[in-house]
Amino acid sequence: MLVLVVLASCNAFYRMGVLNCMARPLAVKRHDRIIDAITTTGSVSVADLADDLNVSRETIRRDLKMLASRGQLDIVHGGATRRLAQEPALSKRMTENADGKSQIGRTAASLVEDGMVVLLDSGTTAQAVAEALVGHLDLTIITNALSSAVILSRVKGFKVVMLGGEVDPIDEGTVGIDTMDMLRNYRVDIAFVACGGVSEDGQPTDYTRLWAEQRRRMVAAAKKTFFIADAEKFGRETPIRIDAMDGAAGIIVDDMPSPTLAAQIQARGLEVVIGR
Predict the structure, then answer these.
(1) Cβ–Cβ contacts within 10 Å for residue 55, how many?
(2) Residue 80: in which H helix or E strand, if any?
(3) Average pLDDT, the chain
(4) Are strands 222-228 and 188-193 parallel, antiparallel or unpaired?
(5) Distance from CA of residue 220 to its chain's centroid?
(6) 81 vs 113: which has the higher pLDDT
(7) 142 phi and psi, to 5 degrees?
(8) What pLDDT does residue 181 have?
(9) Less packed terminus of the chain by CB within 10 Å, N or C?
């Protein structure tokens, strides 16, 4: 009897080994085809990959997660894109999802009351907020964004404070020790802070340690803060966490995240506000 049990166990382990050996080459082939598709088209969707490779969507999600951990792609909402070493230039981002960013801008502006002190981050979504603020009265706007400072300085009755520091040519905004040092001088009623991505666990993230730290301090400087992020950033795995959850009230978006991502965001204490 003991011999039979041992033999049965050996056979089971043998079968498992064979299956694992067979599965590994199949996974490698899938990964190669995924990378080829991203190289050719720039982006892929989970649904299309699952159909093309004849596997489940869950298998594709695991493949994408593994490839992202190796630095071979960036995960985004519903699929993946080529890995971005840095955020694209502001001029390139201006035309991407302009309607969605306008919705976020209008919703953010609706949270601002006349007479408030507003801290406004840089980036294309933040610029949409600046454009939507034009109809308000008697605002003090503190910003590190060159474009937003120009737009808002032309509005009668607005006081605009430009945060000093080194200008980042990608984001066309000031960043660094000098910028962060100036933040300490101001009392802020409400802040609108950008991010590079919103990871699958609901955490706002960024491309560099410097930008993440500056945005953390922006959150800390205000009585109330909202992150601003369009749907293109859902699930995007930029490498640095913005560790500021305790001070943020919510995140304003142009489209509802997936139920899983929305639950993760809310679990971090952030309200999900849909732009309109």
Answers:
(1) 16
(2) strand 79-81
(3) 86
(4) parallel
(5) 19
(6) 113
(7) -110, 125
(8) 96
(9) N
240 φ, ψ (degrees, to nearest 5): -110, 130
Side chain identity at residue 138, one-letter code? D
User: How many angstroms separate the CA atoms of 230 and 52, rounded?
Assistant: 28
Whether 225 contacts 247, CB under 8 Å: yes
- pLDDT 10s digits, 155-191: 999 999 999 999 998 889 999 999 999 999 999 999 9
Residue 137 has pLDDT above 70, yes or no: yes
Structural contact between residues 119 and 188, judged by C-beta atoms closer than 8 angstroms: yes
Kindly calculate the radius of gyration of the chain based on its CA atoms and give it in whole angstroms.
23
What SS3 class is residue 91? helix
**Bridge pairing between strands 79-81 and 74-76:** antiparallel
Task: Look at the block and give the residue holding tokens 């993760």.
Answer: 264
pLDDT at 243: 87
Structure tokens belonging to residue 57: 């969507």
